[in-house]
Amino acid sequence: MRPVKSIYSLLACLVFLACSKDTQQRNPFLPEIGFRFDINLNLPLYSPLLTQGNPVFLDNAAVGIRGVFVMNTGFELYRAFEASCPNHAPNSCSTLELDGQVARCSCEDYEYSLFTGQMLNRPDTEERLYDLLEYRANRSGNIVTIQN
C-alpha cells in the first residue's frame, strides 16, 4: 500500500510544480474584445496573403479595436496584430499605418514589425512600452480565421 501512496504524493508534487506563475501584464491601453473573422484566400482582396511577407489591413468594425493587420510569415503560418497603437489609449492618431512590413503610429512615430509584433525603435526610457497585441490566426484550406 505504501508504494501507491508514494506515487500519489509524487504526482501531486509534479502537478503543483507544473503550475505556471504567468506574470505577463495585460496591456492597459487596449480593451479585451472577442471576435472571429474568416478570410477567404480565393478572394482577390486577400490574394496578397498567399505570398510570404505581404500584409493586409482588415479595416472592418467587427475585427479588432481599430482593425487588424494580417501577414503570411512563411510555411503557411499567419500572424494577426491589432491596428491600434499599443502604447496609448485609442484616439484620433492611434490607428497604425501600414508601410511595407512595418506598422507606424503617427502619434509618437513608433514602428512595429509585422513579422514579430515587436517595437523596432524602442526609446531608451524607464516607461513600460508594449509590443503589438496579437490575435490568433489559423489557416484551414483556403480560409484564415482571425479570432480573440
TrEMBL record:
GO terms of molecular function: 2 iron, 2 sulfur cluster binding
Protein name, per record: Ferredoxin subunit of nitrite reductase or a ring-hydroxylating dioxygenase
InterPro entries linked: Rieske_2Fe-2S_sf
Keywords per UniProt: Signal
Gene3D superfamilies, A to Z: Rieske [2Fe-2S] iron-sulphur domain (2.102.10.10)
Signal sequence annotation: 1-20
Residues that span the membrane, as ranges: none
Record organism: Robiginitalea myxolifaciens
